[in-house]
Queue: 4 jobs
Job 1
Amino acid sequence: MKCSVISLGCKVNTYESEFIKEKFKEKNYDIVEVDENPDVVVINTCTVTNQSDSKSRKMIRNARKLNPNSILVVCGCSSQQHKDNIVDTDIDILLGNKNKSKIIDYVEEFNKNHKKIVYFSDMKKEEFEDMKIGNFLNKTRAFVKIQDGCNNFCSYCIIPFMRGTIRSKDISIAYEEIKSLVEAGYKEVVLTGIHTGSYGTGKNYDLVDLIRKISALENLKRIRISSIEITELNDKFLDELKVNTKICSHLHVPIQSGSDHILKLMNRKYDVNYFINKINTIRNIRQDINFTTDLIVGFPEETEEDFKVTYDNLLKIGFSKIHTFPYSKRNNTKASYMKQVDEKVKSDRTHKILDLSLKLESEYYKKFIGKSVNVLIEEVTDKCSIGHTDTYIKVVVNKRLEHNKIYEVIIGNVDGNLVYGTVK
């Protein structure tokens, strides 16, 4: 028996999809690509933008066209959002964001009675759905989902309605999962969630408590945080950053806009000065720390002046990479009722930010020329080895090295956004 699992969107979906793969492997399924005639196809969808929805729909159509006789399972945010529109389509098992951990059970049920299965839940009322992964197929870095849901309700975002409110994996369960991954040989763990920094809300522990607990695992060399809000980089976290060398010197901190006017319309919980001051405080703790970010361009009512202020503030902050998204209207969010920005204007502004991001990325990398860095090797070919530093710089070494081993490397050359080094 063969199964194909397709994951779209965020790292949380990636984690959930890896869990689904593991469950099928336990039932002796081979994990294959969608064009290798699988008996089951699982598509874990995304709805963060219109493009995400479009990609999800396209993937569903293609999977069914390629595999007319396969059991087609569709789950995730896009199906949760559009359940009324796809319930009558040629999908055998249709789920939202609940019971992804039970997909193998649904498949076995479908194999018995061949009746369509549809299950959706009110995500506002759900508890954390525990999943535990022991191995990640073809990956050196282990992702661990510790949190789900969001309480921020930014005016542009549909995800709190699709994922529900904040809830967390119990700290002892999270620790045991990470411990087993480290015992399986993983040297780097990525803590992930929809709103990762809110981990432990309503409990007697928080993100720093979990970091401290897993830091005691001797063979765990790196702890990476997938994304964290600027307001969650509190004094307790900063104190831990000062002393805990296992925390990677890379923080992905979404700014979304560099204009106070737009941040207020977005219902973000900070202004630009707060953001800049916090970044500067962290740079005083770790001088070479890498800051990357998310930015929405062409948000409703964004003027040329708002965009100029944003551009200037991005330069001032000095991110190394700006993940840029043109604003995508999500129906029934507050932003969908605001005055929309012309599509051509959005496109022009997006390209300007993309160009800026490439420039900032190259400038950040060049700071490391001649410096010694530690690289965890993730890809190996006959001619070269590729891995990441703890600052999340992707480094190419023109030599065959050992996979999943950390090497001390001297950065020798930066060609645009490609970084080359030699083993010290």
Job 2
Amino acid sequence: MMKQERIKEAVLIIVSFIIGGVLTFVIIGGEDIVKTNNTSTNSGLTCSAADCTKVVVDESGISEAVDKVYDGVFMIRNYQNDEVASTGTGFVYKIEDDYAYVITNQHVVEGADKITLITSKDEEVEGEVLGGDTYVDIAVVRIKNIDGLVALQLGNSENASLGDLVFTVGSPLGYEYRGSVSTGHLAGKDRMVSVSTGNTSSSDWVMKVLQTDAAINPGNSGGPLMNTNGEVIGVISMKLVQTEVEGMGFAIPIEYVNSKLETLEKGEEIEWPLLGVSMINVSDAKGSYRYNFNIPNDIDSGVVVAGIESGSGAADSDLKEGDIITKIDGEEVQDSAYLRYELYKHSVGDTIEITYIRDGKESTTKVVLSSSSDVG
């Protein structure tokens, strides 16, 4: 009997010791456990590139991602007649041999006599514009490789979701605010925004872009839009500037940019296909006394064929002057900007189907797209 009581006492002592140890551990270390769990559960976006290095997003923000990319972003100065005409942003996407290759917007380097790039260490180096294109609004600049530069990873915007945290590094308003970091969210995908590629206010091109509410200001153009892993998902190109609009910036999807880089690196022009017609928007033709086209009252969109170039695919088709083009390959054409957008999905030599209206009747015809050397 005495022996059984001693065994019970021993068991009670052991159990009490275990319970006391657990309670002490929870009281002393419980707060740290909770804190550790809170910081480790939010680990940023899934990497969209195969070689992406995943970073942790915690209560300190995205500082780890910023550190990862900061030395690969530049302020760009556009010199004309020995004076700074404009500024923008660019970023390294490739380091090869003795050179670093930089992406920026074409409108950032347009008309420059000289281009210089200012690093995160405040070094100013001269750059060489290898190639650029107005419609893509992308240019490639090459500089001599210098110590400390990093190349940013090009990601995939298609894997990004609405509401994802994004950020950019840029030079809003010029030198004083270079290297500014702004954060926001991916607010929209596949936005169709009409823009002017020239010095006029009328739109002649449509861009399919990403929308963000991150702060975008003059000088951010050409900078990277990145996910929380520091992968580039877009190239900042524009923002809506209206008194009643706040926080609507746009970036060119990186997949589209990447498809043109090799051509621009080589200094070659992107060969856009030609339909071979001069055109007038239906909305402009209906509201002007200068034109005498037969446009039905119920037709409010499309483009009127004002002329056909000899040697072009249009000249070998059924199209005639005065026809109203309403669709390309079944896709609606609102105006000349949308027509170019649909047209430039194709290459020289492709055959497309044009839907047009003549004398109130809808018809279709096939057109083989031309190159600039074919017409004249």
Job 3
Amino acid sequence: MSTYKLCPHLAVTMGDPAGIGAEVILKALADPHIRKNGEITIVGNRDLLTESYTKLNLAAKIAPLANPENLSVLDVRLDAKIKADITLGKGNNASGAASFAYMETAIACTLNGEFDGIVTAPIAKSAWKGAGYDYPGQTELLAQKAGVNKFGMLFVAQSPHTNWILRCLLATTHIPLNQVSQALTPELMTEKLDLLVECIEKDFGIKNSRIAIAGLNPHAGEGGQLGCEEQHWLRPWLEEQRQQRPHLQLFGPTPPDTMWVEPCKAWYGNTQQSKSVHGYLALYHDQGLIPVKLMAFDRAVNTTIGLPFIRTSPDHGTAFDIAGQGIADATSMKAAIQLGFDLASQKIKIK
């Protein structure tokens, strides 16, 4: 008999306490179906969580909320001045310091074996920077603390119309657009393709996958007329990958403006063609995330692949402008928790 536990335990960080993190967590955990697949511990500040709960209960037509008194909370103590400077709807240095402390605590506990994965509520990068933490985002902090150099941002969403699953990995992430062409190299593309294939095989149980890879330039360069990257190295690299990975079907470089047509049809049920494509590799942030958010803004999940543990996150921001009003949509947080349980359960079975 295996000595490993069968029930995964997830840490759910509160994110920026001035944002909608507490609201979407309490709404998600009010759904009994979300909590039936494992244990959940909120990593944050119990007083701030309770304050949000009380404020939200006063909002008109509020959706059901889980009572913090009935939840497992790992209480991260905050300096009194930091706590006093936190106000719903106003992200600042204090809220950034708090959200960073929640993340550090969750990561340390997970690396220590207390949790099987982390679900992260949204943070504000500007608030982190104001608090003295200069990271592009939570993904990079997770990778640094976990001691890994090869990692990726994979966005996963299941269509409510067809149940088709969209998987999109970004080759580059939080960098300015004018740095993308310099950052992209055959070595980086190989690393990201390795991560995507391994994830599809191990986490989703799909062998011999079909993967579409985007071009960089309009019309994928159009024979060098609209950019030379495809001709100079992207096409030769892709042909080499086809030869080295004969068990895979690799499509591309696909013109970026047409790569998303068939996935969109598959999402809405207008075609069966893309249902056999298991993953999409976009070359930069907006090339992948504009179509993902158009199709699945309320249900897409960001998962960091390449870590020694599971990490998922809703695909939306802190929404300071609506914090405390009771109108935040918890669908993406529910999806993030569910995917976290699914992936953690798969990893436990493999062990």
Job 4
Amino acid sequence: MKILVLFDLYRAPKADEVFSARVLKEQEDKPTEADVLRCLGRLGHEVETLAVFDNVLSIIEKLKAFEPDVVFNLTESFHASRRNEPNVPALLELLRVPYTGAGPDSLLLCKDKPLAKKVLHYHGVRIAQFRVSGHARPLKKLRRFVFPAFVKPIGEESSDGISQASFVRDEKEALERCAFIHESFQSDALIEEYIEGRELYLSVLGDKRLSIFPPREMFFQHVAEDAPKFATFKSKWDDGYRKKWGIKNGPAKALSKELEERLEKLARKVYRVLKIRGLGRIDVRLTPDDKVVVVEANPNPSLAREDDFAQSASAGGLEYDQLIQKILDSAIVRWTA
């Protein structure tokens, strides 16, 4: 197939820039794009790339010139804003160009975390108690709220804005953290009941027919038993920090058959309710008494070969090249059905 790999930069690309897999990984810190590009080459597809920043016409012109069979959409921002992520697939929809991954409706819904939580709650999915402190109208009190809690920016991804200071023990700490988020991110803040338990990731592939892969888990080997454990920005992306605290991601520890079935059923339900397609990851907390609480859903999760989604697919019997091909095939079927 003719495939256009579409990704974003936080700067305007130069006219003569060439984005090979090596350049993407080593110079642009884009391991997902590098891994996907190498894989498409191994699969024998005709591949071209387009880096976008703020030029809509460059996308249209490239599509007209190359006429791809499908766009492998890896964009997460436009004009350096993650809020614009849904607009790129929306443009592709208008142009009637097949593309991989989630549509604009799902991206809009899941990026509005409070709205997504309300939708899940309406459909009977267990979520944590939460409040929203608006950037324009910050909360002054938190009446009848359960502490400890967890405070994070609304609309950010990849745990951006989440640190150890996000864990708050009372109203005063919560409102102080909200004020920090309002000032630092110019964003509303989500205050969410902290759920003690294990951090699990449920990976889902497909559109009409779904594949649910074996769960992954984040382990905190050197963190004190009674200390709060959650995924901060550093615990996800800082290798030195992860090594110091023994933070690793891997196959979930032993789960009962009944619990595995419940997790699979939950993943399917959340995926459908939030209109995710192509691929998605559902993040949950598993309490000591085996209650499952949905934290959030992530359409278009990272596809780097060493990240949770691809590793989960491998554990389910789908190696990386097969996974990428299935994602492509799903996009083609969706647009030709």
